[in-house]
Each structure stands twice: as C-alpha cells, then as structure tokens.
Amino acid sequence: MSDALPAVHEQFQAPGQQLEADRLGLWVFLASEAMLFGAVFFALTVYHLIHPAAMHAATSRLDLVTGVIGTAVLLTSSTTMALAVKAAREGRRTEALIVLVGTVLLGLAFEAIKVHDWFDEYDQGLYPPMGPPFPLPQPAARLYFHLYFVSTGLHAVHLAVGILLVAGVAASLLSNRMKLPERTVTVEMVGLYWQFVDIVWIFLFPTLYLVSR
C-alpha cells in the first residue's frame, strides 16, 4: 500500500472514479454473499414453519448461553471496527491501530466460542455425518443440524477472512506502510465487510437459537 492515493489504472480517469468503482465492486460482492446466506435463511424458515416440533427439539439442544456471549462479542467488534473507521478518517493512526487489534481479538474470541460449541455438539451426537448416534428421532431435526453446521461454518469462514483483512490493515499501519487519512478508503471497505459479517450473525442467531425454542 502506498503512502497516498493508489495509482490510477488506465481504465480510470481520476482517483475518485477508481475509488467509487472499488466501492461498487465491494457492494456487488456483498450482495452476492447476501443471496448465499439468504438461501440458508429461507430453508431454515421453511423448516421452522413445516416442522415446529422437530425444530423445537433441535434448537433446545443448542447452548443458548454461549450463543448470547458470542453474539455480544461480535456486536462489540462492530463497535471497535466503527471506531477504527472514524479514527482513520481523522488521521489518528495509533487509535485506529489499537481498535483494529481489538477487533481482531474479538473476532478470534467469537471463533473460539463457536469451535467450542461445535465440539460440544459433536460429543452430543448432533453432527449428523459422523460421531455418536444422533439423539433425536425426527428426520427434520437431523436436517436442521445439517443446515446449522453449514450456516455457522459459512459464517465462520467469512469471519476468518475478515480477521485476516483487519489484521492486514493493522500490520500496514504498524509498519507505517499505510498513511492516514490518505488511505481511509481501505479501512472503510474492510470495515464494511466486517459489518456485513456481523449483520449476517445478527440474523443467524435468532433463526438458529430462538425462533423455535
């Protein structure tokens, strides 16, 4: 990353036009990701409506306490990411670096909580492809846990990408390869991706943990 605005590629006439194209590209990418998660939400909603008893039996096996803690951790990371964008816009490099590192740590904490849940659910036999016998008799409950592991796994992968992006920005600030506020747009776009991942969980948490409990 350069010390000032990025070099203008030949297809653009000015840095501002290039930055707007970058933002548009990110929004298109996020829209495609929203459609991916939207399909998962739709499937879960349909099964909650069609098989309420099985969904109740399934969701009651999830650890609501760790789910709430993880949600609180992720919401806190949204705040630190927003503070990082604000500090970047104002050219406060040290403050931006501190809250970016905090965001990374909170993201790692959420991932650790989720991995703990997965191991616990595996021990209970709630991972249908393998492990101990599945403890619930309803076929719909088995399908629910397939969707549960797919959706939480997809979210964990997206969050891992976000952690790497935020860590990369923090490393660039630490090494003084990124100047602020000249490169605020980089922090903004990484922040936008992070907020998207957090919003996905805000919808996933009640859909998975609360709707049929």
List keywords for this structure.
213 residues; mainly alpha; Four Helix Bundle (Hemerythrin (Met), subunit A)
Description:
The protein is mostly helical and 213 residues long. The protein has one domain: Four Helix Bundle (Hemerythrin (Met), subunit A), CATH 1.20.120. 77% of the residues lie in helices and 0% in strands. The chain has 6 helices and no strands. The protein has helices spanning 15-50, 52-59, 64-89, 93-123, 139-174, 184-210. It is elongated and about 60 Å long. The termini are far apart. The model is unreliable at 1-9 (pLDDT under 50).
Distance between the termini: 48 Å
How many structural domains are formed by the residues?
Answer: 1
Helix share of residues?
over 70%
Low-confidence stretches: 1-9
Instruction: Provide the structure class.
Output: mainly alpha
- The gross shape turns out to be elongated
Q: What would you report as the Rg, rounded to the nearest angstrom?
A: 20 Å
Give the number of DSSP strands: 0
> Which CATH top level class fits?
Mainly Alpha
Instruction: Output the CATH topology.
Output: Four Helix Bundle (Hemerythrin (Met), subunit A)
Mean pLDDT metric: 89
Which oligomeric form is depicted? single chain
Question: In what range is the share of β-strand residues?
Answer: under 5%
Number of H/I helices = 6
Major sheet characteristics: none
The H-level CATH homologous superfamily, spelled out, is Cytochrome c oxidase, subunit III, four-helix bundle
| Pattern of helices and strands | HHHHHH
